[in-house]
Amino acid sequence: MRAFTFVEVVIALAIVSISLLTLLRLHIISIAMVDKAQITTQAVLLANEKIAETVAAGYPKEGTNFGKTEQNGLTLNWQTDVRDVRLGQLEKEQITGLRKILVDITWKQGVGRKQLQTSTYVADRKLP
Predict the structure, then answer these.
(1) 5-49, pLDDT tens digit by residue?
(2) Residue 128 falls within a domain, yes or no?
(3) Which range of residues forms the domain containing residue 84?
(4) Is residue 41 part of a domain?
(5) Which listed site, 32, 51, 121, 127, has its alpha carbon 20 to 30 Å from 42?
(6) Does the residue 113 lie in any domain?
């Protein structure tokens, strides 16, 4: 009957240790990626909510609104900016009343700040 030598056992333990450390590192990276995805999802949902609020009020007035909200211990700063869109091609056709709604979401993540922007266009229902 043949037994394992001490050298074979040490080599096997080294291989297992390296494998476990690699798996642990991958697990930590996975947790960080899930955290980042959850924060980004919260920012996208907030941006969509602000666009929906702006559009729900009817044809939006030009201007800027801003504020902050806290969700799950994360502070998200938001800003909505509504501006007239003037395109030469539209003005030639005497079409006015197109507005752009830009929503900017910022938050602190780690030592830096992250940002997400989304926009949409709204037309005056009185267009010819």
Answers:
(1) 999 999 999 999 999 999 999 999 999 999 999 999 999 999 999
(2) no
(3) 6-123
(4) yes
(5) 121
(6) yes
Edge-to-edge strand list for the sheet holding 74-84: 63-71, 74-84, 98-109, 112-123
Give the Cα separation of 31 and 39 in Å (integer). Answer: 12
**Tally of domains within the chain:** 1
Q: Are 44 and 118 in contact (CB under 8 A)?
A: yes
Residue 47: how many CB atoms within 10 A of its CB?
22
Whether 1 is covered by a domain: the verdict is no
Long-range contacts of 67-76 (CB under 8 A, 24+ apart): 71/42, 71/46, 72/42, 74/39, 74/42, 74/107, 75/107, 75/108, 76/42, 76/43, 76/46, 76/105, 76/106, 76/107
* Encoded tokens for 48: 């969509």
pLDDT at residue 80, rounded to an integer: 96
Total-model pTM: 0.75
